Amino acid sequence: MTLSGFEILDILELIFFTPGLVASIYVVYKHGHRKQLGWRFLVMICLFRLIGASTSLASVHHPSTGLTVTYDIMNSFGLSAVIYTALGLLARVQSGMDVHGLPPRIFRLLGLPGIAGLVLCILGSINIFSDDTSDQKNGLTYFRVAMILFLVVFVADILITIHSYFHISHVQKSDRRLLFAVTAAIFFMATRTCFSLLCAFANNPRYFSSWSLEWEAILVHACLGVLMEAIIVGIFLWAGFTTVPAPRATSPRRKVGPAVYQIDSESSKPQV
């Protein structure tokens, strides 16, 4: 049986991201489960790719709108997970810089565009594959706004990376490997982001689409989308394996003084 280009791409995703998922779970276990470290987003990249590839293969034999929508959502979620993995690693770098680092509230605020973008991606994918023309237009609008929100966070990643280099002397030696990993991944993140923006705004599904069956679109998607995420996962896994875990914040120990007993000298005398 001859495999289509889409099926070959899906199988390659399963081959790469399955061990990638196992490795990323180990990295999360090694570094802990604290949100500010960002390692959990690395697991999400692999999960989103595996779910997308599985639904795509399933749709070959059991085509349905639900499977197509799920596949499209997973592709959009992959971009957000890539951007927020980098943001989480930068948050650790900045937290180790003490007063020279950015306030933690900045990273919390940058989480809001991601949440809004994920919601818009879901609404966009559902409406794009609707039979109603007006819903399709609304879905495309939602998708475009979501990509702009992700772009804002990606630009923030770049600016925070630059800020870290301006204060490189205050970056802990154990965290510099994370900063170098984010720096190495920025080019591939930019390529992945540009691909999503072209899918949203170019209006040319023959070349820029994550679900088109045209061989040109499949090739572009494989090179600018899937391959970029695979390289980014490889870079971040290298950083996770070679970087020591962040020290846990220890709460100050409570000083417990000796028990104080008030003894009445008069009452302590033996009664006659």
UniProtKB/TrEMBL annotation:
Q: Which InterPro entries match?
A: DUF7702
Q: Which residues cross the membrane?
A: 6-29, 41-61, 73-94, 106-129, 141-166, 178-198, 218-244
Pfam family for this entry, one? DUF7702
Signal peptide range: none
What keywords sit in the KW lines? Membrane, Transmembrane, Transmembrane helix
Top-rank taxon: Eukaryota
Q: Where is the DUF7702 domain?
A: 9-243
Protein name according to UniProt: DUF7702 domain-containing protein
* Source organism of the structure: Exophiala bonariae
